[in-house]
Amino acid sequence: MKDVIVIGGGPGGYVAAIRAAQLGASVTVVEKENLGGTCLNKGCIPTKALYKNAEVVHSVSTMKEFGVNIDGGFTIDIPQIHKRKEEVVFKLVDGVRRILNSYEIETIFGSAEIKDKNQVVVHKNDGETENLETKNIIIATGATPYIPDNMKSDNPNIMTSDEIINFDHIPKSLVIIGGGVIGMEFANIFHAMGTEVHVMERNDRILHRLDSDLSKRLQAHVKKQGMKIHNKAFVKELNSKEDGSIEVVGEEKGKELILNCEKVLVAVGRRPNLKGMNLENLGVNHSLKGIETDDNYETNVEGIFAIGDVLGRVMLAHEASHHGIIAAEAAMNKRITHNGSVIPSAIFTSPEVATVGLTEEEAKAKKMDYVTSKFMFGGNGKALAMGDSHGFIKVIANGDTIVGVHIMGLNASDLIHEGVLAVSRGMRIDDITGTVHAHPTMSEGFAEAVMGLKGDSIHALAPKKK
Ligand code: NAI
Fold it and tell me: Looking at ligand 1, which residue's alpha carbon is closest to its atom 38?
């Protein structure tokens, strides 16, 4: 009998498996496709490889500004783009395989079916069936793209992120339904490579869960770059034409909207993978939106845990990994890690955005006595020298305590972590302003934004006299 069976080998599952093994557990991971899950194989990592392509194309297109001229223009080699992307993916997936092996974690490739709280049947990819016994089960089966009924189609040009990631040419035109994280990351990639991109977002702005300062400014910026953003827009039907192209019939702000395009990307959210989990019979509390757990990520059935996207809450790889560590420790009765309620997020648009803690809207809703301060990267030496000074850092403090940090700009995904420490450790304004930041760096912008909370920012105009 195993101590732990982990179902799903993504960033939730493989991390849970490693942590359990570190604590002395005998562990089996059951994975139906590839180790690394969506993140490594179809999500975070391959899209970041493509994000780099978008950056390179942008750099080449703006070389003149830096005094570099290439005569005769440039071409894009799609097979090479995918080759590089797949090499990156392979290195990481193989790395996970090697780490699991080093901990003597068994990996079985196939679909798991939970029989009861101690028994899992695996329908292996090689056609065999294997029965496993275990003390604990960790469900880490992730989520798949959700396709509303009126967008279902057998036209291969109507795609989800799972398919578009393997594009074989750069489409002339692309309508993206959903201006959320997936929609905007692909919008950035294809727009940079020359596709005419339309985004239809039913809300009044793209990435509407972000602090509105951030999402409004990003929306204005991408529109200026040439992306077509349709707010308060929704699709009624997708009509496939004979040549495979699509007529998107919908509405924008109450008026009819018709768009003709070569491809459509449906990016309106993801739904948990519950197939084979037998939750009804096991008596595990859940809905189609996800599985319910306690703070240890244990379900109401003792010994059955669930982590990551399958919970149907925030779907982020790093959050899934954090759940995995907590669940593994709880399964082994060695709870060490604290529940991290402060989870940052990073979105790879151009420029990047990254955020942690409360948005201004949330601070307002909580009736906090908050102050905000913004430092524009236009006043930052490093940003200007790098030729990328769009954006800002916004900091929100409740009294003296930093409760939210929101960044749009170059390397925002890395810069955010000083904010993560500040918010998660409840740091005060003086903790940051009393800390020397190296020059010239983007991080100086964070110190400046925090100084600005007291009107003490150095590289900003003096506050207006009252
Ligand atoms: P999402 O929830 O981020 O965005 C979906 C968007 O579609 C929302 O803005 C919503 O208002 C809009 N929408 C929904 N139905 C619509 C309709 N019928 N017509 C027009 N707009 C509609 O979901 P998304 O982008 O599919 O991503 C799924 C999950 O994956 C999210 O939880 C996301 O955070 C996560 N993810 C995170 C990444 C990152 O952190 N960098 C990268 C990719 C995904």
Answer: 181
